[in-house]
């Protein structure tokens, strides 16, 4: 990697300001906020253990949720400090602010290998505004800067970019953490020169969200498999009826161009050949506005590429599952981003689960390298208990997508070169 990593610096006795992504899902249980998925916390442990071993004074900064400059108690990082202490088996100090005298005092008192977790940086609007005065305040406790928050590298905020710039200006080092290094290796280097066949499986709701990724991967992939609601915008572009499926009429031309580019580049571009369709039904449940919640029910397999007027396409059908699984079984490199259907509803989860299984099988049986681009695909794999059967699962959602698009991520750009 062209960027400095924590392995390259000697932090002994120095105050290291480490940005981590502890934006974890929290749920209230008996009046307490409970962490429902601690993956992002666990993934920072190698970096933290290395810094402890080096004898750094570790100051951890993170955001949680989008409190928009308010002290929103449900978005406090305090529960994360408690869990981190359990996972590391050592004391983790917590301070209920991220700037100010209290923070400076506690950071100054840390012994080598000591840890202080700061409160949610987004309790200040200045964080997202990347306010230079606020960044100076954060940087008061930073001799070195480490970024292990891959999931937040697409944000040019004070803690992801501003502090790094200040530390660099003072002649201090800004290094990538070990998680950041792994993310860049798998989503970057490994996909740059993939073992072939390189198969990309893309799903999700919108073509417009994925078009830049599709465009870039058409330069590299041997096969692209399309699923999710996005498939129906392609159908629309091909002149089929899409019923009540989620489609983006404005993205029709984009879909048509992607099909043309695939042909010109000789990339096999597969769209679903059958679907599972469902009909919207009003339930007894009420939404926040007091309106009945609409749920999709009555799943039916349909081989007709024209969707019935009263139904929506909600999952890939069994013939598509078979075709996609056969392609994945021959792959040597796989990138999967986005579910194949409305997998949160178990009536429409079969396609996503089958792709998860096919990706896991290709990895375990054929030695394929499988890289999962974060977000919903990771959720689906974990739900199917296949998370440990793939090569790499990104901790980023938006960040992985932007990285795969080839965008320069501000949080990465701010790090020192080797
Ligand atoms: C994420 O969960 O995607 C990252 O932590 C970034 O959060 P954000 O989308 O609120 O900036
Ligand atoms: Mg996000």
Strand order of the largest sheet: 5-6-4-1-7-8
Mean pLDDT: 96
How much of the residues is beta strand, in percent? 15-25%
Q: Spell out which ligands are present.
A: 3-phosphoglyceric acid, magnesium ion
How many helical elements?
16
Number of strands: 17
Largest sheet: 6 strands, parallel
Class by helix and strand content? alpha/beta
Euclidean distance between termini CA atoms: 8 Å
Shape: globular
Could you tell me the radius of gyration in angstroms? 23 Å
Quaternary organisation of the protein chains: single chain
State the share of residues found in helices, binned by percent. Answer: 25-40%
Q: Which stretches of 5+ consecutive residues score pLDDT under 50?
A: none
Q: How would you describe what is shown here?
A:
It is a single chain. With 418 residues, the chain is of the alpha/beta class. Helices cover 37% and strands 20% of the residues. The protein has 16 helices and 17 strands. It has helices at residues 39-42, 45-54, 78-88, 101-109, 125-128, 132-138, 158-169, 178-192, 207-217, 230-237, 252-265, 318-329, 350-366, 376-383, 398-404, 410-413, and strands at residues 15-19, 26-29, 32-35, 57-61, 93-95, 115-118, 144-147, 174-176, 198-202, 223-226, 268-270, 275-286, 292-302, 312-316, 333-337, 369-372, 392-393. The strands form four sheets. A six-stranded parallel sheet has the order 5-6-4-1-7-8, with helices on both faces. It has a six-stranded parallel sheet with strand order 11-10-9-15-16-17, sandwiched between helices. A three-stranded antiparallel sheet has the order 13-12-14.
């Amino acid at each position: 990697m062209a960027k400095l990593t924590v392995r390259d610096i000697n932090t002994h006795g120095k105050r290291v300001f480490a940005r981590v992504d502890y934006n974890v899902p929290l749920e209230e249980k008996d009046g307490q906020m409970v962490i429902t998925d601690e993956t992002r916390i666990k993934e920072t442990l190698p970096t933290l253990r290395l810094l402890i071993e080096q004898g750094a004074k570790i100051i951890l900064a993170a955001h949680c949720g989008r409190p928009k400059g308010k002290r929103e108690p449900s978005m406090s990082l305090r529960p994360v400090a408690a869990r981190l202490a359990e996972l590391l088996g050592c004391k983790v100090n917590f301070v209920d602010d991220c700037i100010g005298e209290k923070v400076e005092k506690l950071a100054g008192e840390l012994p080598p290998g000591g840890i202080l977790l700061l409160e949610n940086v987004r309790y200040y609007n200045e964080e997202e505004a990347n306010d230079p005065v606020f960044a100076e305040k954060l940087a008061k406790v930073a001799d070195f800067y480490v970024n292990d928050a891959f999931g937040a590298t697409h944000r040019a905020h004070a803690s992801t970019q501003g502090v790094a710039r200040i530390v660099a200006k003072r002649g201090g080092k800004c290094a990538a953490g070990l998680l950041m290094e792994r993310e860049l290796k798998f989503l970057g280097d490994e996909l740059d020169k993939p073992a072939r066949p390189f198969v990309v499986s893309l799903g999700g709701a919108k073509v417009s969200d994925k078009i830049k990724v599709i465009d870039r991967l058409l330069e590299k992939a041997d096969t692209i498999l399309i699923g999710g609601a996005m498939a129906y915008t392609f159908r629309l572009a091909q002149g089929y009826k899409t019923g009540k499926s989620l489609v983006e009429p404005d993205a029709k031309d984009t879909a048509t161009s992607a099909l043309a580019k695939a042909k010109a580049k000789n990339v096999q571009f597969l769209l679903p050949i059958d679907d599972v369709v469902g009909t919207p039904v009003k339930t007894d449940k009420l939404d926040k506005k007091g309106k009945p919640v609409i749920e999709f029910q009555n799943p039916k397999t349909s081989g007709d590429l024209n969707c019935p007027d009263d139904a929506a396409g909600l999952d890939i059908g069994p013939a598509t599952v078979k075709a996609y699984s056969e392609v994945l079984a021959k792959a040597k490199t796989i990138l999967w981003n986005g579910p194949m259907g409305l997998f949160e509803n178990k009536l429409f989860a079969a396609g996503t689960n089958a792709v998860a299984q096919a990706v896991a099988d290709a990895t375990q049986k054929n030695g394929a390298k499988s890289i999962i681009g974060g977000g919903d695909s990771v959720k689906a794999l974990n739900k199917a208990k296949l998370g440990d059967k793939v090569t790499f699962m990104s901790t980023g959602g938006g960040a992985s997508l932007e990285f795969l698009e080839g965008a320069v991520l501000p949080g990465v750009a701010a790090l020192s070169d080797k």
